[in-house]
Amino acid sequence: MKAFPIIVSSPSGAGKTTIVDAVLKRNKTVSRVITATTRAPRTGEKDGVDYLFWSIKQFEQAIKKGQMLEWAQVHTHYYGIPKKSVDSLMKKGICPILVIDVQGARTVKAQYPDAAMVFIVPPSLKELKKRILGRNDNTQDIELRLETAKKEMLELDHYDYALLNDDLEEAVDNMAGIIAAEQCRVSRQDLKIKNLK
C-alpha cells in the first residue's frame, strides 16, 4: 500500500483527538503527526507526545526556513505541522494522521492531493459549548471558539467524510472503517498486488 496523509479536522471540543487516539491503538499502519504549537501545555499534556511545545521564536524560525508543511495563528497561538514529520512516516509506509484545522487542511490537500479528509461533526453547538466548558478554558475563549466552530462547519463540503461524534464508540468504529476503506482503494495498492496473475 502506498502511504497517504489522513487529514482530520473539527471544531475545537468536537472530539478529534480522542477519536484519533483510540484509532491509533487499533491500527499500527497509521501514526499521528505531532503538531507544533506556541500555546502552553494543558494539564497532563507532554512535549513530543501531545504537541511539540515551541517558543514563538522557534516557530517563526521554522516558518522562515520553509520547514513547515502548514501553519496558522489560531486563538492567539501558532499551530503547524513540520514537513519532516509527515515525509518520514510516509517513507516508512505509514499513513500520517494530521489533526489540523480547516485552513491547514486546505494547504495540506493542495500539496498531497491523494490525502483523505475527515471532518468530525459535533452533535450540536449546545453540546460543543458544554464540552468546551468541561476543559476549563476561559469564558472569552469559549465564545471565540464557538464563533470559529460556526465558520469551520461551512468548510464541510471540502471534506471526503463527515463523521458525527454523538456516540464516541461508534465514532471511533466509523473512523477506523474510513481508514480501512481508504487503505484498500485500488489506486493506493502497489504493483505487486495489482499484477497478481
UniProtKB/TrEMBL annotation:
Function statement: Essential for recycling GMP and indirectly, cGMP.
Q: What's in the keyword line of the UniProt record? A: ATP-binding, Cytoplasm, Kinase, Nucleotide-binding, Transferase
Give the organism's phylogenetic lineage: Bacteria, Pseudomonadati, Elusimicrobiota, Elusimicrobia, Elusimicrobiales
| Residue span, Guanylate kinase-like domain | 3-180
**Keyword Cytoplasm on this protein?**
yes
**Record's catalysed reaction(s):** GMP + ATP = GDP + ADP
Q: Does the keyword ATP-binding apply?
A: yes
Pfam families listed in its UniProt record: Guanylate_kin (PF00625)
Give TM segment ranges.
none
Q: Indicate what this protein is called per its UniProt record.
A: Guanylate kinase
Q: Which GO terms describe its cellular component?
A: cytosol
